[in-house]
Amino acid sequence: MDQGLEAFLHAVPKAELHLHIEGTLEPTMLLGLAERHGLSMPWSTIEEIEAAYRFEDLQSFLDLYYLGASVLRDAEDFHALARAYLERCRDQNVVHLEMMFDPQTHTDRGIAFDVVMEGLLGAVDEARAEWGQSVRLIMCFLRHLDERSALETLQRALPFREHIDAVGLDSGERGNPPEKFARAFAAAREQGYALTAHAGEEGPPAYITGALDTLGVQRIDHGVRCLEDPALVERLVAERIPLTVCPQSNVRLCVYRSMAEHPILEMLERGLSVSVNSDDPAYFGGQLVDNYLALARELDMSGAQALSLVRGSFGGSLLAPAERAPFLAAVDAAAASHGIVRVGDRAS
Ligand code: HPA
Ligand code: ZN
Question: Is 41 helix (H, G, I), strand (E, B) or coil?
């Protein structure tokens, strides 16, 4: 791989828009918390865990992801989890993070909503104060549960309204179309949340259309299956709908057979607003930087393409244009110092 590009990918300020905090639970912390709480897990060593993390589809991952999350019990645990990931952001130059969390994964097993929030918000406050980390929170509804549970979750979030920026939709996509959550998203919209939803990861392109038209989301998480519907691609380009793409997640969950087959650069070249994200890095074997490096290594991503993707990570964010501007200026400065130019700049 081009050394200059590799150095640029490490150094450039990046935004991450699609990251499940429960998916950052590293095996070491998982085993430590299981021991602390006297919980028995099917594995007792890191090696056993790593061997178990071979997934054949989204559901086979989700089964272990929910099992892993069951070791999170008190505010201290949620704090430690979020603190560890925020430190990884600092170390990777992920200057802006949009952190998804799944409250129902915890409230359904008797952990109070407030306990989750106390832990997460404590860590977020520290990262903001200690190193100026920019963070937004996205509360996701689990789509395998019913809409009543999503509406209850929205109710529980009311005391924390000012701390949560957006509502999302995740978990098993097949058989759980966006339309199932029309009322929950309408209620979230009324409360002033920004809206996003996972769609077109395993689900068909119609789920992307449903998320846009029925839920009214401003962004699509994953969205890669839009490529099966040229009219939808045209619409996503025309409406500049951001797609938060997760390359290593897609390969590990067998959406694509290998990174060499991943279409993210084709999506970029077709004018789609794509960004690179890690999704659940502890389960998929790669942090955000590793996802970018994999594109450079296996898809021969150019410097100009890398720059477009990094700029797209801020462009697709929940940040207001005035908040994005200084980040984009810093991105361009990093590009200039690494000799990377934007497409079109060379000729002008
Ligand atoms: N898809 C759906 N649900 C999820 C994911 C994902 O990639 N990661 C964590 N929950
Ligand atoms: Zn996701």
Answer: coil
